[in-house]
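User: Hey, my collaborator sent me this sequence without any context and asked if I could get a structure. I don't really work with proteins. Can you help?
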Amino acid sequence: MDSAHSRAPELRRFTLPNGLRVLLAPDPSTPVVAVAVHVDVGFRSEPEGRTGFAHLFEHLMFQGSESLEKLAHFRHVQGSGGVFNGSTHQDYTDYFEVLPAAALERALFLEADRLRAPRLTEENLRNQVDVVKEEIRLNVLSRPYGGFPWILLPPVLYDTFPNAHNGYGDFSELEQATLDDAASFFDSYYAPGNAVLTVAGDLSVDEATALIEKHFGDIPERPVPKRPSFAEPVLGSERRHTVPDAFAPLPALALGYRLPDPATDLDGYLAHALLGSVLTDGEAARLQERLVYGEGIVTDISAGCGLFGSPLDARDPDTFTVTAVHPPAVDPERVVRAVDEELDRLATGGPEAGELARISARWSASLYHEQDRVMSRMLALGARELLFGRAELAVELPGRLAEVTPAQVAEAAGRLRGQGRAVLVVEPAAADDTADTNGADAGDQ
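Assistant: No problem. I've predicted the 3D structure and written it out in structure-token form, which is a compact way to encode the shape of the chain:
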């Protein structure tokens, strides 16, 4: 096995009496510590009529806490020479910082303090609603392909509110958010038993354990919400939708398919990840070679697992996407047909062994490079622990991908061709032709 597998046994786990799950990943080779709290709530869990609330609440968690006034968290981390952030995803929200190793206790105190009691005030709420609305204007409403495809594709592919709605939020619903909503959301989802604390880097296991018990141990236990299933039937037919975009210089399209459940069919899921790379990763990839360099009918094309381009970042249902940007003279049907033809070829003959080995090597190099950064490693460990109960997935991934066979990739291609899908077409339009589409979310990624 590769070296990533050998690092997995270094993980240490324990659970505090209040239910908080703790994951320690000591690494004496780095001079820093990274601390993250992953909370089991994302925008799929936010209440109907309060779109964007999970992301809004992430913002509120930075506005002071039980012992700290507004902006104190920022000053303490930056004053220690550290960096921090948070982000909202489909199924989780994370809060994290990386600091010099000597500042471990400071980071633990800061995270415990706001997990115990964030400072929820009317002033903070109204201020952060305005901040989030401005974020939506910048990231979605005023830029080319804003929300493409992660906001625009789900309502075509999915039927239920959790899977289909706009996670960045509708302006009118954000404006209606109340302090009671915020308090209820905190009480429901931010219980210690609904979170995972991950600490990675230059740490002593005994010292870190003692500090975690000191700072997090007295947070009161609260009931943990029962996580609903967000499962939906796979589409049996094709659905199409067209949206105008006032800022798009060229037309674009997105194809959306359902992925296997990574919790029950990880190998099948990973075969789709490699399929996406066989299609679009690098100049020799099949759709790149054909459509960009050969026929010249697209200017950009990409394919892969996850609405945000990251595999294993959400529970079932997860989405395989193909996105392309093409010249106005090109009929989008030409692009769709080419994708279907390449999927059919792969379903029949599979990728060549050398082709798949090259793709696997690219994946390994990218994943190992990412794991070299303690912050990336910590966030991957915490997210996989929360979503799938196995942080080890983060370090096993290069090896698991290398074991995927050409036959499994062929099966993945056939699976996509055998199910329904969503086809989203983006058409450049004059500003007054566009619909008023109010934003969406992936947090501050």
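In plain terms: Residues 122-141 form the longest helix (20 residues). You can pass these tokens on to your collaborator as they are.
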